[in-house]
Amino acid sequence: MAVHDWSTGRKALAVLGPLLLCVALAGLLLLKVRAPFAWIGFLLGVWSLWAGFVCRSWARWGINGAVILVTLGMAELLLSKPGRAHGTYICLNQPQRNYILPDDVLGMTPRPDCQVRHHLQARGQDLFDTVYTIDEHHLRVVVPAGDPAHETVVFCGCSFTFGEGVADDETLPSRVAQLRPDLRVLNFGFHGYGPHQMLANLESGRIAQLCPQPPRVVVFQMIPDHIDRVVGWVPYNPHAPRYGWREGRIERLGHLDDHFLTRKSRAALMKSKIFQQFLAPHLKPTSAVELTAAIVAQSAAEVNRQFPGCEFHVLYWISQRDATTPGLRQALQRHGLNLHVVEELDPELAEQRFLIPGDGHPTAEAHARLAQRVEETILVPAVGPPPEDATR
Predict the structure, then answer these.
(1) Facing residues of 243 across strands?
(2) Which of 39, 93, 177, 371 is the most buried (most CB within 10 A)?
(3) Model pTM score
(4) Which pLDDT tens digit goes with each residue over 109-127?
(5) Domain extent for 143
C-alpha cells in the first residue's frame, strides 16, 4: 500500500515513532558527545523530510525544516573547528590520580603536593608542554618562595594568574617575586576561577590562614569571561560558589549547581557553538555585569576588614571583541576600585605575539612585562619590613 493511502492513525504512528526515537538519541548525544548539536541537526533534518513524505500536506514544511536543521548542523560542525586545542593533565608524582579535585568551598582545586604535566595540542602541533608544581596548600608554587617573615603579596584570579602554559618560574606571581625578593608572594589562581572564588577564599579564612603576616597587597587579575563564570554560563566548574543579592548586600547563596534543571539545561545549551557565540551573550541576565563588579568590590571590602591597611588592586585584561567589556570596566570604576587596565599599563601586551598561539593565555614574556608594570605602579613605594610588635 502506498504511503499516501495509509490511514491517519498509521501516518501519525509513522511520524511520532521516529520522532520519539530521535528525541531519545538526541538526549544520549547530549550526555555523551562533546559537540552533539551537529548530529542532532542532521538527525532531526532526516526526520523532518520523512514527516513531509508521510504527510503530504506537510511536505513544504518538512523540506524547509530539513534544510534549516541540516544547515544549522553544518554550522555547528564548522564552528566546532576539528583542529581545536586538546589538553591532557598527568600527575607525574601521583600516577592514576586526578589533578583537579572537587571542593565544597571553591568548586574545584588542584591536587596538593602534586607535579602535573599539562600538554596542549592542536592539529598535531604542540602549543605547550609544561609542568605545574602544586604545594601542600593547593597553591601553585612561586619561585622564589620568599621568606614567611616578609610582607606578603597575594595574587588571586584564574588561569591568567595561575600561569597556564608557562613554567613555575614564569608565572606573573613568580616574576613579581623575582623582582621583589623582599616580599613573599602567594598564587591563589587556578584554571576557571573568577571573583566568586576569590571572595570564597577570603570568607572561608583560607587566605588569612596561609599568611603568617597580614598581606599588604592583594592583586586580582580579571578578564571579561569572569561574568559568565559568576552566573554559571560556562561548561566547567558547575559546583562553583553562587553569590547574589540579599537585603542589599552580596552574600553566598549556595552553589551554581544547586538547581538540577538549571544546571543540566545550561550544560546542554553550552555544548552548542551557535548558542555560545551568538545567543548566550544576549541571554545572560542584564544584572550579571553589576553582580560581578559587586563581588569584586565585596572582596575588596573583605580584604580591608580582615587586613586593615592592605591595598586591593584589579588588573583587568580588556577584550575589544566582548560587548560586556565597557560596561564591566565602568561598573568596577563606580565601586571606586584601584583598577589597572593591562593594555594601558603596557600597550604592547595587546599584541597577539604576547598570547600563546592557538591558546590565548599570556606568554612567559607577557608575564615578565606585566610584572614590571606591577612592580612600578602597585608595589612602589617599596613596602618596608614589618614592625617588631606586629601581631595577627
Answers:
(1) 252
(2) 177
(3) 0.85
(4) 999 999 999 999 988 889 9
(5) 86-377
